Amino acid sequence: MKLIVVTGWVISGLWKWITAASIWRLMKSCWYSLTMMKLDPYLQIDAGTMSPFEHGETFVTKDWFETDLDLGHYERFIDEELTKNSSVTTGQIYLSVIQKEREWKFLGETVQVIPHVTNEIKDKIREASEWKDITIIEVWWTVWDIEWPHFLEALRQLRWELWRENVLFVHVVPVLRVSTSGEMKTKALQHSVSKLRELWIHANVLVCRTDSALTPEIKKKIAMFSDLDENRIIENWDQKSIYSVPLNFMEQGLHDIITQRFFGKTIECNLGDRKSKVEWLLNPVSTINIALAGKYTKLDDSYLSVVEALKHAWASHQTKINIHWLNTEQCEDQNREVFVQNFIKEKDIRGILVPGWFGNRGIEGMINVANYVRIHNIPYLGLCLWLQIATISFARNVCWLSKANSTEFDQNTPDPVIDFLEDQRNISKKWGTMRLGNYEAYLKNNSIVSKLYKSDFVVERHRHRYEVNPNYHDVLQNNGLFISGSSKDWSLAEFIEISDHPFYVGTQAHPEFKSTLQKPHPLFCGFVKECL
Ligand code: GLN
User: Fold this and answer.
1) Strand pairing partners for 289?
2) Whole-number Cα distances in Å, 27 to 81, 102, 203, 258, 317
3) CA-to-CA distance for 136 and 496, rounded, in angstroms?
4) Strands 435-443 vs 457-464: parallel, antiparallel or unpaired
5) Contact predicate 211/237, CB 8 Å
6) d(CA 133, CA 472)
7) Ligand 1, atom 8: nearest CA belongs to which residue?
8) Are 99 and 475 in contact (CB under 8 A)?
9) Residue 174: closest CA among 250, 237, 248, 255
10) Could you identify the atom of ligand 1 that is nearest to the CA of residue 357?
11) What is the pLDDT of residues 95-136, one digit of tens each?
12) Residue 505 pLDDT > 70, yes or no?
C-alpha cells in the first residue's frame, strides 16, 4: 500500500484538489493504478442536502452517491469514474462508530476518538486501497482547523504503520506577495511546515501556490527552512487554464520524485494529447456566445460541471464560448417575449443551454424561453429539469393542454404531464425517492442523439424525482414531440427532440458529469457545432 496525502495550510482556495488530481494524472500516465479519497469535515453523510448557493453544485457518482463538486473535478482530470468510496465525511465515520457501539462490537471498551474513530478512518483507507498501486488522500480545508485532529492523527498513524517509504506527504502552501513592495514572503509557509511538524508530520514535498515563478533565492530559502531538497519544492504558479497544471508538474519532475520514493525508479510520463487540447483551449480560432439560463446565475460553481463541459467542447472545436447568464425569473412577465428577443439580439446568442435545478423559482419564465427557442429555431440543449420544462411548454403550446404542469410545481394540475412515478422507476428505498446515478437509455436510430452518441444505447447519470408521465407519451408524440431515447421498457422518457427543429434536445440525465477534456461529451459537442 502506497499513500500520498495532500494537505494545505494558511488559506483555502490553493488548488489543493488540482494538486491531488494532477498527481493522479501523472501517476496514471506512468501506468500505475490509483484510487483517491477526499476526507471532508462536515457531519452530513453525503452532499445531497447542501445548498448549491453555499457549497456549489452537487456531483453524482455512477454508484448513486451525492458528493460535493470536488469529485467532479477529479473525474475531469483523471478520465476515470470514481465511486462513493472516494468521499468520506466525519458524519459517515461517526455514524459507523456509533452503530458499532450500539451493536456491542466494542465489548464494553470506552469508545473514544483515539483509537476507535481513527481506526475507523484507517480501515476505510485500507479497504479502498486494496488492489491499487497508489492511494491519494486529500484532506479538505486547512491543517489545524478545529475539525481536523481525527483525520490527521489517523494519517500520522498510518504513516507509522506502513513505514515512511510508503507514504508521501504533499503540503500545499501559498507564497504570498506583498502588493505594495511586490516582494514574495515565505513566513506563512515556514509556519505552516512547522505547525505540521507539531503533529509529527513532516512534509515530503511542498507545492507552492504563487502568482509567478519563484526566484532561485526564494526557492533555496524555502528548501532550507522546510528541510527539503530543492527539487522537492514544486511551483504551482497561476495558469491560464487549470488543465495545464499536470503539464507544469511534469516539467518540474514531480512524477520522478514519487516513482523514485515508492518504486525506486524513474518512468517516462506521457500525457498524450493533453498539451494540444490545452493549446486549443487557450488559442481558439473563433468565438460564440451562448446563454446559460438558470436561477443560480450569480455563482459559476452552482453549474460547474456544465461550464466545464462547455470548455471541453470549446477545446474540441477550437471555439471560445462566452457564457451569458440568463436569469429566468426575468422572463416571467408580459414583456418576456421582447425581453428574450432583446437578450438574444444584443448578446448575439447562438444557442441556449439550460442546466437542471430544484424548486419552482423561475419555472414559468423557463417555460416561456423553451417555447421561444422552439418557435424561433434557436439551438438548445436542456438538461434534466429542462426536459420536463420543454415537455410542459410543448403540452401547453402545441397540444392545447393550457394548464399542463409538473406536480412538483402544481399538485392540482388537470394535466400532470410531469409526475412522480416511483413504481415505474423501481427505486430502492435505500436511496430515498431520488433517481440517482447510472441508468441506461435506448435511443431511436433516426434521432439526433443516436447520431451524436454514435450508438443506440447509452448510460448517463441521473439526479431527479420527476418523469414525463407515460399516460401523456401518446398525445405528446402524436403532436410532434419525439421521445428519442427511453428506458428499456419504454416507460421512461430519457431524451426528447423536435423533428423539424435544427437542435432541440432534452435529456432527463446529467451528461455534464461525464464530460472531460480528453473525452468531451457528444451532446455538448453537437450543441456547440450546431451553434457554430
Ligand atoms: N426538480 C426536477 C426533479 O426532481 C429536476 C431536478 C434536476 O434538474 N436535477 O425531477
Assistant:
1) 322, 349
2) 16, 42, 19, 8, 29
3) 40
4) antiparallel
5) yes
6) 52
7) 356
8) no
9) 237
10) 8
11) 999 999 999 999 989 999 999 999 999 999 999 999 999 999
12) yes
How far does the centroid of ligand 1 lie from the alpha carbon of residue 295, in Å? 13
Nearest-atom number in ligand 1 for the CA of 355 is 8
Q: Ligand 1 centroid to 271 CA: how many Å?
A: 37
Residue 27, C-alpha cell as written in the block: 501517476
> CA 185, 191, 194: angle at the middle one, nearest 5?
140
- The yes-or-no verdict on residue 430 having pLDDT over 50 is no
CA–centroid distance, 49 to ligand 1, in Å, is 14
C-alpha cell at 288: 460564440
Distance of CA 342 to the CA centre of its chain: 33
Going across the sheet that includes 205-210, the strands are 87-89, 34-40, 134-139, 2-8, 167-174, 205-210, 233-237
For residue 460, what are the β-bridge partners? 439
pTM for the full predicted model: 0.90
Active-site amino acid positions:
384, 510, 512
Q: What's the confidence (pLDDT) of residue 294?
A: 74
* Confidence tier at 298 by pLDDT (50, 70, 90): low
Which residues sit with their C-beta closer than 6 Å to ligand 1?
Answer: 356-358, 384-385, 408, 463-466
Looking at residue 77, its amino acid is F
